[in-house]
Specification:
Layout lengths: L2 E2 H17 L1 H11 L4 H19 L4 H15 L4 H15 L5 E2 L1 H19 L9 H16 L4 H17 L24 H16 L5
Antiparallel strand pairs: 1-2
């Protein structure tokens, strides 16, 4: 089972729709501990990405990811732009020239993206950031490879791990970003970055559940 270039394009389109639908929710989460702009910023960024899709739909997966990353960096304000831009740029580096991905490829893509985020944002697991959703997702994929799970099962388990990581940010005290300024008052709120990360990873599981 493999994820084709067209599957990747379909995923990005689904992500753009989900971000748009959840824009107000993400902004509401961000209003509690941030600048109240995460949803609007992400929506603006993925709308810009969708405008680029017609020009890159015949390219390799690496080009699609790199174009997505560069577009997000140039259009998404706040911390989300550089971070999600890094996520997709790292994914692009790992997929240069590829027209399809297997489970091992996807695990390497997300692991590279995670490394890029950690380096860019200086965040660690437990800092109440998107890293808290992405780290367990990557670990779950690695375990699925070890357990010889199917691609569909691996993607589903990875999304579940990301959700648990997202929900796990609620009691945490933020140690990075604007939320860290609140100190103990940041506890009790779900991190908006981990939430958008979960939406993106869950979209992959849903979009690709019938790939063959």
């Amino acid at each position: 089972m493999s994820i084709t270039r067209d599957d990747v394009l379909a995923w990005i389109k689904v992500v753009a729709g989900l971000i748009n639908t959840n824009s107000s929710y993400l902004t509401q989460l961000d209003a509690a501990i941030g600048d109240a702009d995460h949803g609007a910023n992400m929506d603006r960024g993925f709308k810009a990405v969708m405008n680029k899709i017609p020009d890159i739909s015949d390219k390799d997966i690496g080009t699609i990811f790199k174009t997505t990353g560069m577009t997000l960096i140039s259009t998404v304000g706040g911390a989300g732009g550089p971070l999600y831009g890094t996520f997709f740029l790292q994914a692009g580096i790992k997929t240069v020239g590829k027209m399809e991905l297997n489970l091992n490829d996807w695990a390497e893509v997300l692991e590279s993206a995670l490394s890029g985020l950690v380096m860019r944002g200086k965040a660690e697991l437990g800092d109440k950031t998107m890293v808290d959703a992405l780290t367990p997702a990557v670990n779950s994929l690695k375990q699925s490879i070890t357990d010889n799970q199917s691609l569909n099962t691996a993607l589903s388990l990875s999304a579940e791990a990301a959700k648990a990581g997202m929900e796990g940010t609620i009691p945490l005290v933020a140690r990075k970003g604007r939320a860290s300024y609140l100190g103990e008052r940041s506890a009790g709120h779900q991190d908006p970055g981990s939430t958008s990360m979960y939406l993106i990873l869950n979209a992959a599981a849903e979009t690709w559940k019938n790939v063959s």
